[in-house]
Design goal:
- The chain is mainly alpha-helical and 186 residues long.
- The protein has two domains: 115 residues, Methane Monooxygenase Hydroxylase, Chain G, domain 1; 48 residues, Ribosomal Protein L9, domain 1, CATH 3.40.5.
- The protein is built from five helices and five strands, in the order ααααββββαβ.
- β2 and β3 form a beta hairpin.
- The longest helix has 33 residues.
- The radius of gyration is 20 Å and the shape is globular.
- It starts with a helix and ends in a 5-residue tail after the last strand.
- The relative contact order is 0.11.
């Protein structure tokens, strides 16, 4: 996984345009980092293997943080400019960021237009019911690929995989006992 993270980071650094990432890239990266941390706990701190894993974790951590920051800036610029992004370019998590940023940019643009036209500014709460709400889940066992209520394919998933899925699908998966909703600290 380290090679995938490095390759994604390098592609993002070398290109001014947002580069495609697998939809589950962040989920896979998170599991990889979790595995490294778990390995470190079970190894003697004085061993060479501990130092190697610590170095790998530190390098991967820096790459992931820089990659996320680079991508966020590019996504924010695209949203501010009102441009669309091909679905194959964004991860599940980034798709949510982009939608929210695009909404914010649209409202900001409308506000500045109203200001210069001398119109009263009204604050609206955007309610986009066309897109289903998405929830972060962790799978408790392996399941084959599914088609979400949004008609997009998801999976297949292995035990301990993490993904964001439409709320309606999450509710069914939780009822079946194959997934657990995850709480996200904000």
């Amino acid at each position: 996984m380290y090679e995938e993270i490095y390759k994604a980071w390098k592609n993002e650094i070398e290109n001014s345009l947002l580069q495609p990432l697998q939809r589950d890239f962040y989920s896979k990266s998170s599991l990889y980092m979790k595995r490294l941390l778990a390995e470190k706990e079970n190894i003697d701190e004085k061993s060479l293997k501990f130092r190697l894993i610590t170095g790998e974790y530190g390098n991967a951590r820096r790459l992931i943080i820089d990659l996320c920051n680079l991508r966020f800036k590019k996504i924010a610029d695209l949203a501010y400019e009102g441009q669309s992004v091909p679905e194959t370019t964004l991860t599940d998590e980034e798709e949510l960021y982009f939608e929210n940023l695009l909404n914010a940019a649209t409202h900001f643009s409308r506000t500045s237009r109203d200001l210069v036209e001398g119109q009263l500014i009204t604050i609206e709460t955007p309610q986009d019911e066309r897109k289903p709400k998405r929830i972060l889940v962790r799978f408790t066992r392996e399941i084959p690929a599914i088609i979400g209520v949004d008609m997009k394919p998801y999976g297949p998933f292995k035990s301990e995989d993490v993904a964001t899925l439409p709320l309606e699908n999450v509710e069914n998966l939780v009822k079946q006992g194959v997934a657990i909703k995850l709480e996200v600290d904000q």
